[in-house]
Amino acid sequence: MSLIAGPGRGGVSHEAPSARQLHVEKHVRYIRTLDTRKDELEYWLTEHLRLNGVYWGLTALHLLGHPDALPRSDTIEFVLSCQHEHGGFGAGPGHDAHMLYTVSAIQILATVDALDDLDRNDRRGRVRVVEYIAQRQNRQTGAFAGDDWGEADTRFVYGALNALSLLGRLDQVDVSAAVAYVQSCANFDGGYGLSPGAESHAGQVFTCVGALAITGRLDLVDQESLGRWLSERQMPAGGLNGRPEKLEDACYSWWVGSSLAMIGKLHWIDRDRLRAFILGCQDTDHGGLADRPGDMVDVFHTHFAIAGLSLLGDPDLKAVDPI
Questions:
Q1: Which of 89, 154, 248, 267 could cross-link with 105 by S-S, CB 3.0 to 4.6 Å?
Q2: How far apart, in whole angstroms, are the C-alpha atoms of residue 183 and residue 195?
Q3: Mean pLDDT within 309-319
Q4: Which residues of 239-272 are buried (b: 16+ CB within 10 A; e: fewer)?
């Protein structure tokens, strides 16, 4: 799946705002054709995100009601070709393993009901990936490293817990220590940062609240303060930003929206204005969604914008799990 941007731009439409609708078939066609643009330089410059891109495109297609738009067997084979002997997954064959690629691999296989393929031909892939994830945890702090070089932050805690929960092996890590690390990243404003003492950011809020939801510890969240901080992310145009003084971006429809949904406060934002903003990010000619009207579309923003619309209950989409 290519992370290449364009060729279209969001918001290029002659539709009246009140008549805007989700152009399902155009978005499906846009995602399906992404991997055909191999003669463009950007296709190769984004190779380090290839496996993540497959997850984003595949999930968007499932939410759009077209789960078979990508060949299942080819998808499975590509994912398995990215796994290292030690169990972790890289962005593509030959790329270094990382937690972010590993969780995307497990999510993809779970989505296409192919987790058992990890053990095909006695590969022991399931055991090896569990070991890879468990070995990334610092048992003293509870944090998880993204790779062998030790960078640690809340993204990797969420990724580790998400993948292990899908594999049914949360028992292989110190969940209590991971929860304690997440809580150490909580801030006075109710939000969460990348690490203890770091600025609150909606993306990190999602990873922290998601980790607490997976482990059944949402009781630790200051839900009133967090709900207030998250609802303040809505801008006059209806879109959401990731932190104060930043522009709105369609991807935060997911990061903010899912966090609000997990704490039962999605009704604290103006859903109609958010929906109108997201639909205004569509390229209604060629498909795909951009971060905001006027910018080029890409599969990252297409996925997260569609997921945000699903959270809002869009009738053209399948329901998404906010975790």
A1: 89
A2: 10
A3: 97
A4: bbbbbeeeebbbbbbbbbbbbbbbbebbeebeee
